[in-house]
Amino acid sequence: MKPGVIADPPGSTAVAADDTAVLASGGRTSFGGFLLRLLARMPFLFIAGRLYGSGEVGRFGYAILVVELTAQLATLGLKRGLAEELAQEKDPHANTVADALLLGAVLAAAGAVLLMALPALVFPAGEVSALDHFFPLIALAVAASDISLAGLAFRHDIAAQVRARSIIEPWTLTLMAVPAWYLVGKSDGLLVAYAASMLAAVAASLIPCIRTFGWPHRWRPSFARLIALARANAPLAGADVADWGSRRLDFFLLGRFASAEVTGIYFVAQNIASLAAKLKNSFDPILAPLLTTSLARGDTEAVAGHVRQVAFWILAAQFAVVLALGLTARASMGLFGPAFANGAVVLAVLLTVELLASQGAVAEAALIYVRRRTNLAIAVAGLVVQAGVTLVFVQRYGALAAAGGLAVSVLLVSMAKSWLLRRELGSPVSGWRIALILAAVPAFGVGLGVQHLPEWAQLSVGLVAILGTFGGLVWWLGFGPSDRLLFKRQRAD
After folding, report:
1. 393, exposed or middle or buried, with CB in 10 Å at 0-12, 13-18, 19+?
2. pLDDT recorded at residue 35
3. How far apart are the C-alpha atoms of 432 and 437, rounded to whole Å?
4. Which of 487, 353, 428, 453 is nearest to 10 (CA)?
5. Contact, 467 vs 346, CB < 8 A?
6. Is the separation of the CB atoms in 80 and 150 below 8 Å?
7. 99 near 229, Cβ under 8 Å?
8. Is the pLDDT assigned to residue 440 strictly greater than 90?
9. d(CA 186, CA 127)
10. 31, 282 in Cβ contact below 8 A?
11. Rounded average pLDDT over 209-225
């Protein structure tokens, strides 16, 4: 056995001990942030569903979809590409971060001006108030926050992301939802709450970024340098937009073909299901620097090991979420109002989508550095498949068609990206283990029994029983020493 390597049972993952400790430390912090975000997001969805109703929730969801797309385009792949730029050390880090922030601000401002000139793109129903016209400007705050946190992640400062995106942003959104309803009314209350949350998040991102990197030294804005940065990140930006779009295209198409009420119900189901996806996103800040440094020294086995390790952790957590919330979907959706209970099947499908997508999403974290253009081509092909399936069935099956189109797309994309990465690295990259299936079968049986309980019991006793059964069996059957580092605090933290 090589020095510095943690031994695991056959079929599990073994990677360098130091790197695994870094992954585990960042994963603990990020997972804690995920739980905090969950605790904040659920009260917000409850307030939005009960106080504003499904129609206003649908209008709000569509508006932030367009604005966040603008911000996603403006970051130009720098949420993940900034780590590679900083690793090259061509310029002082503060100057590189300043270039990235300036590029993001210019592109976000251009997109916001376009949306302000064409408000129907943000509010397709045509009801646009004076306040609504200025809402697209919040894209600047979203882009600046994303880029600042990407820079901090390169320095392994994951706590800043947890504070900004798992505490300050969601809790500001939740706490502002009720006052905004009284201050500006039902139609704009959710938008004002969202704007306040993003302003708070950008402050919580920029301030620690400046403290960490300092102010730029002998830096002047250079149009040529910004163009070069944009060109280098274009394939990565395309992959980011395609991946982001695959999780929004279903909602976009549904918003065009279905009523605001149906769209609102889908928005709530999508938000609950996307919490599982944020488990993967929470590892991105700590995984990207490790992958770039391993690739820089030509250690492809280490890259494959990191992918396998993180994929298994995410699959285990997401499988638990899918079983717990999927088997109690009607009770979970009913929390937000009687009308939302009709979205139970959609929620179960969307949760399954996140499970199917997770392996490919982790594989993409490495593909963006080794096969950027092929990765982009796969993502675009997935969007085409998703759009085709959804458009064929959406008028007949509504929300279920949108969720089904997404499911088909992510399964194909996940399989293709995992296969491509395995071929490129010459090592297995799959995080799937037989222990996941062995633990899921008894937990599924418990879930079927839980469905006979009253709704309040499903959401209290039932959830605990499902999670406890699955978690206990996975820990016993599937977690080796390196896996258990995720739950073991060390001095290195």
Report:
1. middle
2. 66
3. 9
4. 428
5. no
6. yes
7. yes
8. yes
9. 13
10. yes
11. 82
Name, in order, each residue with C-beta under 8 angstroms of 364's C-beta and a sequence gap of 6 or more.
Answer: 239, 243, 375, 379, 417
| CA distance readout (Å), 473 to 276, 435, 448, 452, 469 | 20, 8, 18, 24, 6
Rounded to the nearest angstrom, the gap between the alpha carbon of residue 191 and the centroid of all alpha carbons in its chain is 21
Confidence check: pLDDT of 9 > 50? no
What value does the mean pLDDT take over residues 71-94?
77
pLDDT at 160 over 60: yes
Q: Please write the tens of the pLDDT for every residue from 19-39.
A: 666 666 665 665 666 666 667
Q: And the tokens for 332? A: 């979970």
Mutual orientation of helices 344-370 and 223-246 as an angle, nearest 10°? 140
What is the token pair recorded at 330? 């009607």
Q: Which residues pair with 5 in a beta bridge?
A: 16
Least-confidence region, from 311-315, 378-382, 396-400, 458-462: 396-400
**Is-contact 87 293, C-beta < 8 A?**
yes
Instruction: Give 364-377 as a DSSP string.
Output: HHHHHHH-HHHHHH
What gap in Å lies between CA 368 and CA 104, rounded to an integer? 20
403-404-409 Cα angle (round to 5): 100
d(CA 25, CA 282): 12
Question: How far is Cα 58 from Cα 62, in angstroms, rounded to an integer?
Answer: 6
Task: Check pLDDT > 50 for residue 305.
Answer: yes
**Tokens in use for 124?**
């397709």
DSSP assignment letter at 5: B
Diameter over CA atoms, the chain: 68
**Residue 372 tokens, joined:** 């950027």
Contact 268, 343 (CB under 8 A): yes
For 4, counting Cβ atoms within 10 Å of its Cβ (0-12 exposed, 13-18 middle, 19+ buried), the class is: exposed
Sequential DSSP letters for 208-253: HHHHHH-S-SS----HHHHHHHHHHHHHHHHHHHHHHHHTTHHHHH
Cβ atoms of 310 and 362 within 8 Å: the answer is yes
Task: Report helix, strand or coil for 16.
Answer: strand
Is pLDDT larger for residue 209 or for residue 223? Answer: 209
Give the Cα separation of 146 and 269 in Å (integer): 25
Rounded CA-CA distance 268/96 in Å is: 38
Cα separation values, 143 from 13, 202, 402, Å: 36, 9, 28
- The residue type at 195: A
